[in-house]
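Let's do one together. I've listed all components of the complex below, 712 residues spread over two lines.
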Amino acid sequence: MARAVSTQTKIGWTIAAWVVALLIFFPILYTVITSFKTEQEAIAGFDLIPSFTLQSYGEVQTQNDYIRPFTNSVIIAVGSTILALIVAIPAAWAMAFAPTKQTKNILMWMLSTKMMPAVAVLVPIYLIFLNTGLMDTRIGLVIILMLMNLPIVVWMLYTYFREIPGEILEAARMDGATLGQEIVHVLTPMAVPGIASTLLLNIILAWNEAFWTIQLTTTNAAPLSAFIASFSSPQGLFWAKLSAASTMAIAPILIMGWFSQKQLVRGLTFGAVK
Amino acid sequence: MAHITRALAGACAVTALSVPALAETLTIATVNNGDMIRMQRMTAPFTEANPDIELDWVTLEENILRERVTTDIATRGGQYDVLTIGNYEVPIWANQDWLLPLSDLPDYDSEDLLPPVRDALSVDGTLYAVPFYAESAMVMYRTDLAEAAGVTISDSPTWAEIRAAAEAMTNKDEEVYGICLRGKPGWGENMAFLTAMANSYGARWFDPDWQPQFDSEEWNATLTDYLDMMTSYGPPGASSNGFNENLSLFQQGKCGIWIDATIAASFVTDPENSTVADSVGFAQFPNKEGVDNHGNWLWSWSLAIPATSDAPEAAKTFVAWATSKAYTEAVAEADGWRNAPAGTRASLYENAEYQEAAPFAEMTLNAIESANTQKASVQDIPYTGGQFVAIPEFQGIGTSVGQQFSAALAGQMSAEDALAGAQSNVTREMTRAGYISR
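Okay, and this is what the predicted structure of the assembly comes out as:
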């Protein structure tokens, strides 16, 4: 039976939640505010009211074309996510519905690869990319980001698939469904919320990835992470310009997150309450 | 005969049509600072004069750029044709045969380059990079605060003079701090300053046998005085302040004295960005009484051509143009003499228009000319480099020592403990690297 919660407690928790949410969101909000300031206003100190100038946005666009890195980011993030799902759905099916003694160990091993710092494998991967012609190509980045995010995708899908009763798949098999039909027509539709949240999370991870996307590109395939990196200055204060570049880089993913927050929250809390 | 004529005409047409396809593309890796961004804007005369050369720019933050081009050059990746690197990398990379010698640049006046800068970019007399701009370090101070406090700072001050002036200018109630110095850990942050300060105290990183010297009296005096000045007269949270943070404090009128790179002079005297633009004085980097050494700080962002470039001749044409006197004049014409790339050419400092536009010109030239990167300490040393030690291991050990000193500034440990930690860490790393026998 649910415990009765007083109105005062509810108000208290609501205020606390808003305060925490604002604290977490504040750096992003202040970046957006700073992007509408002049450079002089930006360094003058803390101020929440900008002069609403678009000067920095104009300068950012003049200095670096936004469209090419934006297009690269979309292709790389979406491409690597779709490729990861194509590989991960059958893998997660096998681990969830046909486990062996080693399944848990394989899952742990996959996750452990995420614990290794990326820089440790930089030189071998750099050489592979050089020798296979993948350097500074979108397909190269799609492959590397797919590989980097694959353990998380498999883990998430495995968790969702385990919530689906195996009997339903057995019933499909008894009705004569092949393995492919079972995955495509039975399992996938039932796991759509989980797959959707995995897809969204993976797009966000791929969009924000800033190690491989900078190390393995120069000009042709450089995405928005490289775009931002070009505005950070070691000498000289260009905070308004840097903020404008950051806002331009995060805006698409923030908008996507805003519209898909229901699916994201549902997917991330799936199975958390039983 | 007609067939032959037609065939020849056809061959000529195909050749003519394929000329644009033969245009070489130079991929140029560079840092994001005002001078480099200006260069990207001003390449029209170059591309018009060289229609067969196209330019592709890769602009990155300094540390990312360093990591990125180091990976590429060490793996012989050949992704870049022109690299923007500092005088720290030049001797190390030239010794590895990773850079092309640049002694034969077409129509290039290398004799006009300031000797300390040219020396810092040469190995055994051969130039391996050409300077785009160069900087040393000097004292920048508020003339109005000094006057109000009744103190004067001489053109060549000692550390005792600086300390006394910082004390007189400090007014913490009004958030005016007598002295602002780098405290953020990093080989290019606090250790650039502290290495130069140590030089001016007569200290050295290593003796001729590569034994670390942090247990010396000179290092002890350097760190003790630095911590004493910063804790007494420095801003709060100084252990997080690097170049940009101190620039911001100075521009907002919160620092009496700031000792840092000469390039800062153009920022703090710019009325559009600085609230104290009309009241900034300059002086030479201080020295300790009795030690004839003013830090020997010298940094130069330079253009180099990796040995793996597939367009070396086009790259040479570009670097010669970008660091030429003609380019400097083009910048002056477009954006004024004040914005001309500083610190590289003697002819710039002989130019009356530049001297008039840049009140800091004389002191900058003085600072660069007095920087000796070939022997940075008054004691015997086995290394070159001014505010760094030009060995590949320095990035690692410099940052590790910087963390110890920054922790001491934050009050987490004493100067003695920080120096002992630095001595132990550097000894271990230098032994591992084979400089010291086990």
